[in-house]
Specification:
Helix 5 links the parallel strand 3 and strand 4. The chain is built from 14 helices and seven strands. The longest helix is centred in the middle third of the chain and has 19 residues. It has 338 residues and is α/β, with parallel strands linked by helices.
Length: 338
């Protein structure tokens, strides 16, 4: 029988982690106490809240819980703590590279405006990276519920700060709202500035939203992308173009995209040759971090250690990590397997 190795020791890259969603539940409780914020019971039990985002009401509830948690981040030191702890959690799970995703607009009102908010976030990431040794960069994400002009402003800002640790540009929130093509100018600005394009698609809506990300936004990566499994031609296209899907199994089940962990089409994507990077999405709300996603692949999809190692390699190859970091991580993956 094949030896079962510890997935938390498997070197990997983490490409799909949202900023507030990375928070430790204990940290949220402490910050809420600090600022006198009354949290809904769903955020205070220490258990992931019951969520279903497949209808509008369910998505609204998920968004409301996220917004409540974000309202507890008010000072630069709160941001520094969040980022430092996210780095520590990732390191404990074997991550050697983290690209954390943030819409700085959401933090701007409490941190003195958009540019100060972004600078506070980038400083926190730089400090945490130096202190913990984890390679860490930022993916700036526009909100598809807002006006496309806002996305262009963010794209220009992201390009301006690319030398401070921004590597990509994304598009998040409910993909049932706002057409991908409305954001094509913002993504063109980001790509022209050297940033990788990583919009969300193929989670709450079907394969068409993944196609839109490819056709209209020229995506290099897709946030989620799992619903592409419903279209064999689209799978072939993703595989041929080498577009990495940032697949978040625990999140897919928590939000009702799939009923059970074994329903997430990991095997379908893998067998079709679509590169994947497993991600935790929002551990605060979904209750599991990075290594747990690899455990899902092992337990519910029969991935052996050699295949888990290949998933880890795909995450590294799909990342914006510099060559020397990639080489080190890939060598570490070989060592884990040896």
């Amino acid at each position: 029988m094949e030896r079962v190795r510890d997935v938390s020791l498997l070197p990997k890259a983490h490409l799909h982690l949202h900023f507030t969603g990375s928070m430790r539940p204990t940290t949220l409780l402490e910050l809420a106490d600090k600022y006198g914020v009354h949290l809904p019971e769903a955020l205070t039990t220490g258990q992931p809240p019951k969520l279903r985002a497949t209808d509008e009401r369910g998505w609204f509830r998920f968004q409301r819980l996220y917004d409540m948690a974000r309202s507890c981040l008010r000072e630069p030191e709160d941001i520094q703590r969040l980022v430092r702890e996210a780095a520590q959690e990732d390191l404990a799970d074997g991550s050697g590279w983290l690209e954390i995703q943030v819409d700085p607009t959401s933090y701007a009102p409490r941190l003195g405006g958009l540019i100060p908010a972004l600078e506070i976030i980038l400083d926190a990431v730089d400090t945490a990276s130096r202190e913990t040794g984890l390679g860490m960069r930022v993916l700036v994400a526009a909100n598809r519920m807002k006006h496309p002009l806002d996305a262009r402003t963010l794209a220009r800002l992201a390009v301006r700060y690319a030398d401070r640790g921004i590597v990509g540009f994304g598009l998040s929130n409910d993909e049932r709202r706002g057409m991908a093509r409305d954001f094509d100018r913002a993504f063109a600005i980001a790509r022209d500035g050297g940033l990788l394009a990583a919009p969300h698609g193929g989670e709450l809506t079907g394969p068409a939203s993944v196609r839109d990300c490819l056709d209209d936004l020229d995506a290099t990566r897709i946030g989620h992308g799992v619903r592409a499994a419903e279209d064999p031609r689209l799978l072939r296209r993703l595989a041929e173009r080498g577009v990495t899907c940032e697949v978040c199994p625990a999140s897919n089940v928590a939000l009702g995209v799939y009923e059970k962990p074994e329903d997430v089409p990991l095997r379908t994507l893998y067998d079709a040759g679509v590169p994947m990077a497993l991600g935790a999405d929002d551990p605060l709300l979904f209750g599991s971090r990075l290594a747990a996603q690899y455990e899902i692949a092992r337990e519910h999809h029969g991935f052996g250690d050699a295949q888990l190692a290949e998933l880890a390699r795909q995450s590294v190859r799909g990342s914006a990590a510099p060559a020397e970091v990639r080489e080190k991580l890939l060598a570490g993956i070989d060592d884990w397997l040896a």
